[in-house]
Design brief:
Layout: H1 2-24, E1 29-32, E2 36-38, H2 42-59, E3 63-64, H3 67-77, H4 87-97, E4 101-110, E5 113-122, E6 128-137, H5 143-154, H6 161-195, H7 199-203, H8 207-247, H9 251-295, H10 301-304, E7 309-315, E8 320-326
Parallel strand pairs: 1-3, 1-4, 2-4
Antiparallel strand pairs: 4-5, 5-6, 7-8
Helix pairs in contact: 2-5, 5-6, 6-9, 8-9
Length: 330
């Protein structure tokens, strides 16, 4: 019985030891291609690539083929580029270099907006093992931490506490900057919509809606002017008929002018009522288009409380609807 227990214990220890050793062996060989520069210089890309490769080596999930050997082989082959972020290209490079996996990626800069992306591909099968992307608004200095985070995410490894904290600060800062940018964009759209319905939507590149609002408002404006002109004409006819009614002595003509004045007055009333209806519709459309422009631009929660806030309210003293802007002072 004791011998059996001892055998079981030894077997268990051996299994644990083998599992531990297997977990330390990594996931085979890999080649990490230079990060494709988009909007940054080749020198900047070279620095970021060095940091990216070093981080992959520190993670220890794969054994990287030396960069010098990769460059030499690619130069000898002469058909594949050193910079490669596409899946098919990564597979070809991996097969050429005899690596089990290929890590490819890019760094893109557009103004103060940065985008990083990466992919890990199995050379033999061409399957995508992992893929990730990072986007933020900020400064060039943040790219150092971003490429490190990119490496960890590609190999599905938890970030170290210090890098996780730095990444959180970068993304928080990005949200704040986007909030400022979007707040300005929102206010510009609101101002344009306030000038004339549809201009804000056109600014936000909502062309179909913007043109529709423009056409509708123009149509309503024409209708308002038309009915006001009809009211003005009917009113003048009413005044003229009433004056003739007062000056006339012939009974038949008096009755005729009286009837004419009544008809003209009804036409004036109808025209002014229709003008008011079209005016109210135009006003509601104007308010609605401003509100739509305001809601069309989203602002991160962290910046929402600090950005100008447009509010639609009812003024009891004035007895009407109004728009107001509230700005936080803290």
């Amino acid at each position: 019985m004791k011998r059996h227990r001892t055998t079981v214990r030894l077997t268990t220890v051996l299994i644990i030891l083998i599992s531990f050793l297997a977990s330390q062996e990594g996931d085979g060989t890999a080649v990490a291609l230079d990060l494709v520069p988009r909007g940054i210089t080749e020198d900047q890309s070279a620095v970021l690539t060095k940091i990216f490769r070093e981080q992959i080596e520190d993670i220890g999930r794969v054994t990287l083929i030396e960069r010098e050997k990769m460059i030499q082989l690619l130069a000898t082959e002469g058909t594949l580029p050193r910079w490669c972020a596409a899946e098919w290209c990564a597979v070809e490079v991996g097969r050429l270099l005899g690596a089990e996996k290929v890590v490819a990626g890019y760094v893109e800069k557009e103004g103060i907006r940065f985008s990083l992306g990466g992919i890990v591909v199995a050379s033999e099968s061409g399957d995508v093992i992992s893929m990730t992307a990072i986007e933020f608004v900020g400064e060039m200095e943040s790219l150092t931490a971003a490429v490190k985070v990119l490496a960890y995410q590609l190999f599905e490894t938890a970030l170290p506490p210090d890098l996780r904290s730095e990444h959180h600060e970068i993304m928080q800062h990005s949200e704040d900057l986007q909030g400022i940018t979007n707040a300005r964009k929102r206010m510009t759209a609101v101002i344009r919509s306030a000038i004339f319905p549809g201009l804000g939507q056109l600014y936000l590149e909502k062309k179909f809606l913007g043109l529709g609002l423009l056409a509708t408002q123009v149509t309503l404006g024409v209708a308002i002017v038309t009915h006001y002109s009809r009211y003005s004409t009917a009113y003048d006819e009413t005044v003229a008929s009433y004056q003739l009614y007062q000056e006339e002595t012939d009974v038949d003509l008096i009755l005729q002018y009286k009837d004419d004045a009544k008809v003209s007055f009804k036409h004036a009333e109808m025209a002014i009522q229709q003008r008011k209806t079209f005016t109210n519709v135009a006003f509601l459309l104007w308010l609605g288009n401003i509100y739509h422009a305001f809601r069309s631009v989203s602002i991160p929660d962290t910046a929402e409380s600090k950005s100008p806030l447009l509010k639609l309210y009812f003024d009891r003293n004035a007895g009407g609807v109004g728009l107001g802007v509230a700005i936080a002072l803290d």
